[in-house]
């Protein structure tokens, strides 16, 4: 283990007590709760059917529609929410909301089918066929439900691990088809939708806001930013046999709202890579003149980065992520990096004020990417750098080891980025050392949850 000692430092003023993540999370909960109340009020104003099962069917259908609209907002990639909550958490919430949508709409179909079957005397299967043949929009709703079942099946972890991201993403796009079909069903057959002008206006506004958020965050904003900044590659620099850094420049980069610790979805516009988007973190704090990403070879796509020619145009979506200094709660920080997970950590070390301790976990000295930069940066900022080497087993970042390196760990914000196994182990260590949850920051930089 090697160490770069710190120089004397003056602590900066403490970070604001109001946590951005809590504010954004509370805002989302408040939006969902207010709309849940609005749905209940409009449903009650429309009147109740005599059949209890039909009443339950209509209510679950309305709440399924509400959850579907909320699910769209979660993945709209709206900058204000993304910077405060993080794409990984928003994606995870989207995933679990999706399962809630699926079960709610299944309940809607069951209640409606059995409710109408009780009145008509038909068995459930014949009743469902009759509704599809005689009620406008029901067949479209059943197609939408079938699409959601397929998307839910491929989103299960066991299935998700067995397919490429591009395949999963292509199948997931059918969710938007299901949304459109479900909305047309609600317009055609929804009693609450047509019960009053207020109800009609509410549902049109809700769906318009949800779809508008997706259009703005996923299409309009990326197109506008790329037209404005016109990113292109300026240099490709191998860091070692397996890691390469790509430098980019563009117009008005001082107006690009990127921070250290964030990532972009990068598309290098070459003949063989234009269609493939990869999430890579910034490995330097944005300075208004250039951006840099540092990537470890993990397949044909990342290996091809070594052959990118200077001048290649780049389409970048972002910046994304809440792994930033915005979430500091203490003047001083501990940064824990593993392997190539050091890239956002290196950028954070450059930007974070106060005294920082960086613990960099690698198997051997040769695996320590950007180590010379880290050493020089630590010296310039008066930070401590600890390079911890050795095999993964035994764990060299257990509670005793980490407490020896950073005795005041419980009084610092802690940023963790590395392989999943290491990250999980470090988070467990931090909990055992009594570091408050609000001071721990980790992000998976994932797209699909």
Notes on the protein architecture:
- The protein has 449 residues and is of the alpha/beta class.
- It has three domains: 2-14 and 327-442, 3-Layer(aba) Sandwich (Rossmann fold); 20-216; 228-320, Beta Barrel (Elongation Factor Tu (Ef-tu), domain 3), CATH 2.40.30.
- The protein has 16 helices and twelve strands.
- It has helices at 20-45, 52-74, 79-85, 87-120, 124-134, 138-155, 157-160, 165-172, 174-189, 191-194, 197-229, 300-303, 342-351, 371-381, 399-405, 420-432, and strands at residues 2-4, 232-238, 243-249, 263-268, 278-281, 291-296, 314-320, 333-338, 356-362, 384-389, 413-417, 440-442.
- A six-stranded mixed beta sheet has the order 1-10-9-8-11-12, with helices on both faces. Strands 2-3-6 form a three-stranded antiparallel beta sheet, with no helix packed on it.
- It is elongated.
- The model is unreliable at 7-13 (pLDDT under 50).
> Which strand-content bin applies to the residues?
5-15%
What is the CA–CA distance across the termini? 35 Å
Given helix and strand content, the structural type is alpha/beta
Find the count of extended strands (DSSP E, 2+ residues). Answer: 12
What radius of gyration results from the CA coordinates? 26 Å
N to C succession of SSEs: EHHHHHHHHHHHEEEEEHEEHEHEHEHE
Number of structural units classed as domains = 3
Low-pLDDT parts are 7-13
Put simply, the count of helices is 16
The average pLDDT is 88
Major sheet characteristics: 6 strands, mixed
What is the helix content?
A: 40-55%
Order the strands across the largest sheet as they lie in space: 1-10-9-8-11-12
What best-fitting shape do the alpha-carbon axes yield?
elongated
Domain FAD-binding FR-type: 226-326
Cofactor: FAD
Protein name: Ferredoxin reductase family protein
Transmembrane segments: 28-49, 55-75, 96-117, 137-159, 171-189, 201-221
């Amino acid at each position: 283990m090697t160490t770069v000692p710190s120089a004397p430092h003056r602590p900066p003023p403490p970070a604001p007590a109001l946590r951005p993540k809590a504010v954004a999370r509370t805002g989302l909960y408040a939006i969902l709760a207010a709309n849940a109340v609005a749905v209940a009020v409009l449903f009650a104003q429309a009147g109740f059917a005599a059949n209890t099962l039909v009443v339950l069917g209509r209510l679950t259908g309305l709440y399924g529609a509400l959850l579907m609209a909320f699910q769209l907002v979660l993945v709209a990639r709206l900058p204000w929410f993304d910077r405060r909550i993080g794409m990984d958490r928003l994606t995870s919430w989207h995933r679990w909301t999706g399962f809630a949508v699926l079960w709610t709409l299944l309940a809607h179909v069951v209640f409606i089918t059995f409710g109408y079957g009780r009145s008509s005397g038909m068995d459930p299967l014949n009743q469902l066929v009759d509704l599809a043949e005689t009620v406008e929009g029901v067949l479209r709703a059943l197609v939408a439900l079938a699409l959601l079942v397929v998307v839910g099946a491929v989103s299960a972890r066991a299935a998700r691990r067995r397919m490429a991201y591009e395949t999963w993403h292509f199948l997931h796009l059918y969710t938007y088809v299901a949304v459109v079909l479900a909305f047309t069903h609600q317009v055609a057959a929804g009693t609450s939708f047509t019960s009053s002008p207020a109800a009609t206006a509410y549902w049109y506004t809700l769906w318009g806001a949800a779809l508008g958020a997706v259009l703005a965050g996923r299409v309009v904003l990326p197109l506008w930013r790329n037209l404005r900044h016109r990113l292109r590659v300026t240099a490709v620099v191998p860091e070692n046999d397996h890691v390469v850094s790509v430098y980019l420049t563009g117009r008005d980069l001082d107006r690009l709202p990127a921070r250290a610790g964030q990532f972009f979805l990068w598309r290098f516009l070459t003949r063989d890579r234009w269609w493939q988007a990869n999430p890579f973190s910034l490995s330097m704090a944005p300075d208004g003149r250039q951006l840099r990403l540092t990537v470890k070879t993990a397949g044909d796509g990342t290996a091809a980065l070594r052959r990118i020619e200077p001048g290649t145009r780049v389409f970048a979506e972002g910046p994304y992520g809440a792994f930033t200094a915005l979430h500091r709660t203490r003047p001083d920080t501990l940064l824990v990096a593993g392997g190539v997970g050091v890239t956002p950590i290196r950028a954070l070390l450059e930007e974070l004020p106060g005294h920082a301790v960086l613990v960099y976990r690698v198997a051997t000295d040769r695996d320590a990417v950007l180590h010379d930069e880290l050493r020089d940066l630590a010296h310039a900022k008066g930070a401590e750098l600890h390079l911890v080497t050795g095999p993964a087993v035994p764990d060299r970042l257990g509670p005793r080891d980490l407490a020896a390196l950073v005795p005041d760990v419980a009084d610092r914000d802690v940023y963790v980025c590395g392989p999943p196994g290491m990250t999980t182990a470090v988070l467990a260590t931090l909990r055992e050392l009594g570091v408050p949850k609000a001071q721990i920051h980790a992000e998976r930089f994932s797209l699909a949850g």
